[in-house]
């Protein structure tokens, strides 16, 4: 098995070299980071943090600080973010000025961050998936925001904390780092099943598939019988994107997990994973599925009516809508990923924002902006423009009109209670690369059990090397 890291310096160098080779996707943010990342142990209902005995921020003065925010947003999302920031800059009573800087994709930002951790060149706020934040913290490079969240002077009240969806609120608390809060959530997404309603009716199916068996039946029927309204040639039931979050989502749907949180190890070769990957391989063998071969090819094919099902992020809802309007203009919606469990198990994920260590004044000023960014007013605006789920319940309560105009968003929102997450552990970026290779090999016919056994061994070697850095 190959070894990726030799000490912390090697972590940074290797990460930069490996991830620099990745090509960012230009228009839509990836359904999971590198990573859309994305992660949690069994859902926690209360934050495992307590108010500090002493408020270490009580005498810090954030007045007049200039803050830099590195982000990945483009187009309408960037415009909305800039409007939120502009309003904050005009209205905050401390004269804090936030400047947003687009730095490319999630992986581009990760690459840029690694060499500058612990230096004066770091931004004050940076978008980061949980596993990325864990990697940064190997260098003790991030602020633990627990003391900010619980600060009597600057923090969130008990009522405000309870307003955050519990699973979202605890997702950035890291047991491997003494329950430090290394990020804060501005939004979340979820993997969902997109389906063509009109085509299903033509084939005699009234409801979206709830089980893998139903999914196979509809997918194979669609492959054999093209959609009459299709605007392009070809006919497939499903296109699989080579992405670790697809691997995790299908494993969850078959009743398993990709990580054992009690033992602290990856379980990428569990029986559920083997069953899920054997199932997918069968779809390829039977000619009912194919791989996505170009960026967002599944969106395009779903829109033009040549593909029945797609699985992707709920944040892609407006892009699927645009693809349908530009294509076959068919009726469509979203549903839970077909599952063997009594209830769905939905892969919920999203990048948070972290605070690299700078000065107490800049750190506090950054936190004050994050409070505004995750406040009810800003969240309502952000959710409607970005397509992300808001992170506070009271925001959702005020989105009645938006839910009515976007029924697919409401359907997805109602499935948040079934959410589960991928592991927030150091080195998950590197593990994801290995999972993607294994997933591609399985789709190409490789032995499922042998491939996953090898994958799991490699993943746990990577994890052990990363965890060794914490102990140092």
What is the number of beta strands? Answer: 15
Mean pLDDT across residues: 89
For the largest beta-sheet, the strand count, sense and barrel status come to: 7 strands, mixed
> Could you tell me the strand content as a percent range?
5-15%
Query: Count of helices?
Result: 20
Uncertain runs are: 1-48
Distance from first to last alpha carbon: 23 Å
Radius of gyration: 22 Å
Binned, the helix content reads 40-55%
What is the approximate shape? Answer: globular
Describe the oligomeric state of these chains in a short phrase: single chain
Main structural class:
alpha/beta
Keywords:
44% helix; alpha/beta; 472 residues; disordered N terminus
Question: How is this structure best summarized?
Answer:
By secondary structure, this protein is α/β, with parallel strands linked by helices. It is built from 20 helices and 15 strands. Helix 1 (7-20) packs antiparallel against helix 3, helix 2 (75-91) packs antiparallel against helix 15 (376-386) and helix 10 (244-253) packs across helix 11.
Textual characterization of the structure:
The two termini are 23 Å apart. Strand 4 and strand 5 form a beta hairpin. Helix content is 44%, strand content 13%. The protein is built from 20 helices and 15 strands. The chain is of the alpha/beta class and 472 residues long. The protein is globular and about 70 Å long. The strands form four sheets. Strands 6, 7, 10, 11, 12, 13 and 15 form a seven-stranded mixed β-sheet that branches. A four-stranded mixed β-sheet has the order 2-1-3-14.
């Amino acid at each position: 098995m190959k070894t990726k890291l030799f000490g912390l310096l090697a972590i940074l160098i290797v990460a930069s070299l490996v991830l620099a080779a990745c090509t960012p996707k230009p228009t839509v943010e990836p359904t999971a980071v590198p990573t859309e990342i994305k992660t949690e142990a069994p859902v926690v209902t209360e934050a495992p943090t307590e108010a500090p005995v002493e408020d270490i921020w009580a005498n810090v003065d954030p007045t007049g600080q200039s803050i830099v925010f590195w982000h990945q947003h483009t187009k309408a999302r960037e415009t909305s973010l800039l409007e939120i920031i502009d309003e904050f800059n005009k209205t905050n009573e401390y004269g804090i000025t936030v400047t947003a800087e687009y730095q490319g994709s999630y992986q581009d930002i990760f690459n840029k961050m690694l060499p500058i951790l612990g230096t004066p060149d770091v931004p004050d706020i940076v978008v980061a998936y949980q596993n990325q934040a864990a990697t940064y913290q190997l260098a003790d490079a991030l602020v633990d925001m627990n003391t900010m969240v619980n600060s009597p002077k600057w923090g969130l009240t008990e009522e405000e904390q309870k307003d955050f969806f519990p699973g979202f609120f605890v997702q950035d608390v890291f047991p491997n780092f003494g329950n430090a809060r290394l990020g804060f959530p501005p939004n979340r997404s979820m993997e969902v099943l997109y389906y063509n309603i009109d085509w299903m009716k033509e084939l005699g199916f009234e409801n979206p598939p709830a089980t893998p068996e139903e999914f196979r039946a509809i997918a194979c029927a669609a492959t054999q019988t093209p959609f009459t309204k299709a605007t392009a040639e070809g006919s497939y039931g499903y296109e699989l994107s080579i992405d670790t979050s697809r691997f995790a989502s299908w494993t969850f749907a078959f009743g398993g997990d990709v990580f054992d949180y009690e033992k602290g190890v990856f379980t990428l070769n569990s029986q559920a994973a083997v069953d899920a990957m054997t199932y997918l391989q069968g779809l390829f063998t039977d000619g009912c599925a194919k791989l996505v071969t170009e960026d967002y090819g599944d969106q395009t094919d779903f829109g033009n009516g040549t593909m029945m099902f797609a699985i992707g992020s709920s944040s892609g809802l407006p892009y699927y809508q645009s693809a349908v309007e530009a294509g076959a203009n068919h009726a469509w919606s979203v549903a839970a990923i077909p599952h063997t469990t009594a209830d769905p198990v939905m892969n919920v994920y999203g990048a948070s924002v972290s605070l690299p260590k700078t000065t107490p004044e800049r750190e506090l000023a950054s936190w004050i902006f994050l409070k505004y960014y995750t406040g009810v007013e800003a969240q309502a605006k952000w959710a409607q423009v970005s397509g992300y789920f808001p992170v506070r319940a009271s925001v959702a309560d005020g989105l009645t009109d938006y839910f009515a105009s976007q029924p697919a968003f409401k359907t997805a929102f109602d499935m948040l209670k079934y959410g589960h997450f991928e592991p927030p552990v150091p080195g998950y970026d590197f593990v994801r690369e290995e999972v993607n290779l294994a997933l591609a090999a399985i789709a190409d016919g490789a032995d499922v059990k042998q491939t996953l056994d090898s994958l799991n061994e490699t993943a746990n070697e990577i994890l052990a090397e990363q965890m060794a850095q914490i102990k140092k």
